[in-house]
Amino acid sequence: MERPSSSSATVNGSSYTIPNLPSGTYTVKVTENGGCSQSKTMSVTNSNQQPVANFSYSVNGTTVTFINQSSPGTYAWAFGDNSNANNSNPSHIYGNNASYQACLTVTNTCGSQSICKTVTVGIPANAALIDVKDLSGATGAIIFVPVTIENCVTGSLVSFAGSLNISNPAVAVVSGIIPGSMSPQYNANNQTFSYFNNSGSGVPCGPGQILFYVAVQILGNQGASAVLNIIGTPLTIELGGMNNGTPSTVPYSISSGIVSVANTAKIAGEVTTYWGAGLPSVEVTATHGATSLMKVTDENGHYELPALTVSEMYRVEPKRIAQAENGLSTYALFAGQRFILGMEPLEIVSPYQIIAGDANCDGQFSSLDLFLIQRLIIGTSQDFGQCPSWVFVKAGSPMPTEFTATNVFPYYNCDTLMLTKDTISDFIGVKVGDILGHANPVAIVGNQTSPRNNDILQFSL
Ligand SMILES: [Ca+2]
Ligand SMILES: [Ca+2]
């Protein structure tokens, strides 16, 4: 080979390789054993050079700023605490006072090269510690990660600003900031926050105090995690406090948090009448396999079944035992009879009224049901026999708009779902026999009814 450098290679089969050539124009001369030769000119460009990895870094508390000194290519940083980055000159905040192996891999079309360095970080004793807590939530949930202050080196805090970062946006993303003792303004476009106290004296600074919460939406699959950081780009971190009556910056260190995807989720919801009144004391049971968990609705009809294992099928079913005579009236029987005769009474406008009318739960509203309701009104019987006092319909399940005495049946009386994330499951409660919707939603025992159009709800316990 001739200019700009010379090298030689032995043919291996019909090919040969001469690595690490600087860019330039080369003449390749092939000589056979007998001395005959032939030449060809070709050029080698820079882009085909092997990558070279190197970096330096600076430490400030637990914040490390990395300076890339590698050849061009794509960069993959592994900071040694299970977090990563792909930008050229990342800044990273470590969670603990410790040593970490930080590695950089640079890749180009010729291959890749890695280099690792030991980075030791520490939190100075004279600095306040801003601690982003660890928190997990189910896929789809929004969790509220507390940001607290420890080692409060100032009497009161007057300002705080910085930028939020999540190491892997496929796992979780920041959706906002919820006030604690501070109420920062937040810019979702660049994930920066800024707070200043407008009382003139600042907010008292106590150990463990929650400054604010970062609202984080969980997106990843269960078991995944990401680092939630307060970082100095694009908005520089600055903590301001009162120092002997003078506002000044406060030295700080930041401990990052881990947001992770939980392997449990909750089923929650509300149980209401079809006119929207909350139903308390409804037993809502979630069953999968041989296990079941039950919670009773509160005074507003809300329930919550927490910490259910995900990736399981659940059957959610409400049940309410309350007095059978609630909401019954002879007038409702006349309206029901006119409906059965096809006279379209004005009092019956909802398919739930037909479900209420089916007093023996046989899937149709008929004269026999009117007879059963009448027996309860006059005291010949105390219950509906094969029908419970309340039945339930899964909210949002399809209902015919042109309903008849039979086409609203069967209805969805439970919710069956594959639990993958926090899930809402609402139900409509229907008091059996209450054809006109007059049942008192809070009546559990005794004999009380209350017209729902009345502002005053009359009941006694
Ligand atoms: Ca932390
Ligand atoms: Ca019936």
Describe this structure in words.
The chain is mainly beta. It has 4 domains: 1-49, no CATH class; 55-120, Immunoglobulins (Immunoglobulin-like), CATH 2.60.40.10; 130-135 and 155-252, no CATH class; 263-461, Immunoglobulins (Immunoglobulin-like), CATH 2.60.40.10. Helix content is 7%, strand content 42%. It contains 3 helices and 32 strands. The protein has helices spanning 330-340, 351-357, 367-378, and strands spanning 24-31, 37-44, 55-60, 63-68, 74-78, 84-85, 91-93, 99-108, 111-120, 128-132, 135-137, 142-150, 156-166, 172-179, 185-187, 192-196, 203-204, 209-218, 225-231, 238-243, 246-249, 252-255, 257-261, 264-272, 283-288, 291-296, 302-309, 312-319, 390-394, 415-419, 423-424, 427-431. A hairpin with a 2-residue loop joins strand 20 and strand 21 (246-249). The longest helix has 12 residues, at 367-378. The chain binds calcium ion (CA) (2 copies). One calcium ion binds next to strand 10.
